[in-house]
Amino acid sequence: MAFEGLAGRLQNVFSKLKGKGKLTEDDVNEALREVRLALLEADVNFKVVKEFVSKVKERAIGQEVLQSFTPAMVVVDIVNKELTELMGGTQSKLARSNRPPTVIMMVGLQGAGKTTTAGKLARMLQQQNHRPLLVAGDIYRPAAIKQLQVLGEQLKVPVFAMGDQVSPVEIAKNALQHAKDNGNDYIIMDTAGRLHIDEALMDELKHIADAIKPDETLLVVDAMTGQEAVNVAESFHKQLALSGVVLTKLDSDTRGGAAISVKAVTGCPIKFAAMGEKMDALEPFHPDRMASRILGMGDMLTLIEKAQAGIDMDKAKEMERKMRTAEFTFDDFLEQMEQMKKLGPLDQILGMLPGAGKMKGMQDIKVDDKQMARVAAIVKSMTKEERQNPVLLNPSRRKRLAAGSGNSIQDVNRFIKQFDDMRKMMKQFSGMMGPKGAKGLKGLKGKLGKGMKFPFG
């Protein structure tokens, strides 16, 4: 999960502070020493760490903090604001030309994920009712053009290609004219990468930029390379005047050094973060929301936006009614699984919930597509009556389900037991807002404390 190591360390530091009540200057200094170590271990640039800790210390040792009734919370708030500022302060939005098409040029080293990111960006623009055109400008990497064409077919986005015998500059010029002639309001130009930064690569990119005057020059870098990603961004920015950075594999980057350092070192904002391999796994980068996630405060705004984009609200209301009245069936469970898939991996969703990282049993929840397929196979092996009425599932029927779904009888029994527990848990969730809400929350906490798991978790 993104920032897992750093988030855990920082949350432990602030938990200790909260346990102290009143703070002394020594308490703050000790906490900031631990913060400094946590950031360095997360591969954050040394100069960035030094400046960050200095700014936090300057604000945290003031009398208004040390004499506050909740000094630890004030320190956490200072760290949150400084961390937000470090990563860019506010969201940096994609440029839009006054005279379409808006030209976006994707650059970066080989293997960073430029071509896939170009496809993800095209899908995002398409969902916003734009008409993007993907341009195959990498004529050197074997199958690069074909890869973009396959992505275009999947997304139903047009791809402009002229083969690998025409210069990228000519391809870029022709693509620009093609977009004007066909009403495409965005051009996303995929370019060649190298295994390292060299003069030939930079010269070609400069010539392409001179030919099409991009409104955005986005550098795609692998977040998992940490400080090296920052060094690459700095080198590209010096020669190409980047307008933004896209971090790929941020969902797998447990350290987070690149995300925290890149804006401070280069002055270049992070515009997007890829949070998975699927084509919809590209998110606008919000520094304030990312800082909240790191400090364990959650990211409810992103979660709400995902839900609004991916969930049928009428179905959701009907599902809520069924949960409240314990009418939730196996058919409803299948439908809920499909809705959850649209939101993204479960561990990412949990990371957006305030305090979820501290809830016992939550840190280790991993549900992959194979697990979900096994569960779906059990439900699909049931008759219509069995799906509606779990009470019918006697031992002989469960044996039939195991044979029909390719699972063991133990798997089937465990799933049915967990389904029943889940149904009870959902009913408690729906009752939390009423007068007996505290009691429901206490019961739920007890179940989680006993290690309640999701099916096959």
From TrEMBL:
Q: Where, in this chain's numbering, is GTP bound?
A: 108-115, 190-194, 248-251
Per the record, GO CC terms?
Answer: signal recognition particle
Q: Where in the cell is it found?
A: Cytoplasm
Q: From the record, what ranges are coiled-coil?
A: none
Domain Signal recognition particle SRP54 helical bundle, residue spans? 2-87
Q: Which residues form the AAA+ ATPase domain?
A: 100-247
Molecular function via GO: 7S RNA binding; GTP binding; GTPase activity
Q: Which keywords label this protein?
A: Cytoplasm, GTP-binding, Hydrolase, Nucleotide-binding, Ribonucleoprotein, RNA-binding, Signal recognition particle
Q: What is known of its domains?
A: Composed of three domains: the N-terminal N domain, which is responsible for interactions with the ribosome, the central G domain, which binds GTP, and the C-terminal M domain, which binds the RNA and the signal sequence of the RNC.
Q: Which family does it belong to?
A: Belongs to the GTP-binding SRP family. SRP54 subfamily.
The record's subunit annotation is: Part of the signal recognition particle protein translocation system, which is composed of SRP and FtsY.
Q: What is this protein called?
A: Signal recognition particle protein
Phylogenetic placement of the source organism: Bacteria, Bacillati, Bacillota, Bacilli, Bacillales
- What gene name is listed for this protein? ffh
